[in-house]
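request received
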Amino acid sequence: MKHFSELSAMAEKLVDVAEGLIEQHGYKGFSFDDLAREVGIKKPSVHHHFPTKAELATVVAQRYSHRFHTQLIAIEGKGANPKARLLAYANLFEQTYEKNRRLCVCGMLGAEINDLSVETTIEVRKFFELNLDWLTAIFSDALTKHALRLSASPEAHARAYLAALEGAMIVGRGMTLNKQPILIAQILLDSWSVA
Amino acid sequence: MKHFSELSAMAEKLVDVAEGLIEQHGYKGFSFDDLAREVGIKKPSVHHHFPTKAELATVVAQRYSHRFHTQLIAIEGKGANPKARLLAYANLFEQTYEKNRRLCVCGMLGAEINDLSVETTIEVRKFFELNLDWLTAIFSDALTKHALRLSASPEAHARAYLAALEGAMIVGRGMTLNKQPILIAQILLDSWSVA
DNA sequence: GTCTATATAAAGATAGAC
DNA sequence: GTCTATCTTTATATAGAC
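response:
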């Protein structure tokens, strides 16, 4: 299996387009022919870069997780307080959702999990674990600093926050609403704020 | 367009099976042939009951909303306190999720909204509106009775709670976790509880 | 209402030439 | 790396007989 860090220029272009199509239509919602047309080659040429659709999806999820991780580290680096970091986190989702209500790649793939290859499902799981680990660390920090009023464990708050953001995009899309991730994040952060 | 209340026995059977397949695989994840085999007729006979797949999906969403509404009214009837009613609400999602991590029909369709007929998207929107209206009423009641400590409007809490439950199923499915809706509901309700 | 037969289109994928 | 040609399967849908 190819790794996302060793992709040719065309392979990377294909991963770019596939990522966008998954955000808009899901794994089952795009074809190699769609990809081919968008990058300007023919369908069999796509197979040269990615033998199967499952492999392509796996690489998309891998690279998406990696990029997300990089952005999480960037938020860390700013040294802001826990609440500000959690809001910056929500903004990562907002940035995707802003583009015509696109979903998180792994949120979409999570919904489609019953129809993905095992390799892809492993990447999806890793994405969520990565996010929960990072969020748990932030909530732990908030607990130590008494920066938020937490009624349950940092792990529990991490789960609730992630679920609310993923769900905000699903429901928001279903109702054609804008600004959903940020709105929901603000409601939760307010309710966890110290008086 | 046929209404779900005037379906023949076979049409109803088809809607039953279609509902289950949407919960597991989504709109794009099942075919008329899948349906036909499950109910024991041939593919063209399915078209006799539902000319198009889009029409079938619309009826599935309509009936799903109607049933959900009935269950909401049943929760009302028990006269419990707001927190207990919100927990009973979360249990409606849990009951679906318990069945091998099935998603809410309209959560799944919400994710697929870009590839649905307008008629179906209208039903999906109605489902969410119905839920938000009901939840808003409960949170309003909680506010009046000081049964919960709310940092934002009842509408805002309704949105956050619904998003968290829908997202809990998506993330939980992506990580192969059980009991997600109820767990997330408890975290939020605890954090909104009066000290 | 259900069937067989069929039309039509699209999908994932491979073979082999350039 | 990309192409044309092709295979195979599946999907939505229709025509028309029983």
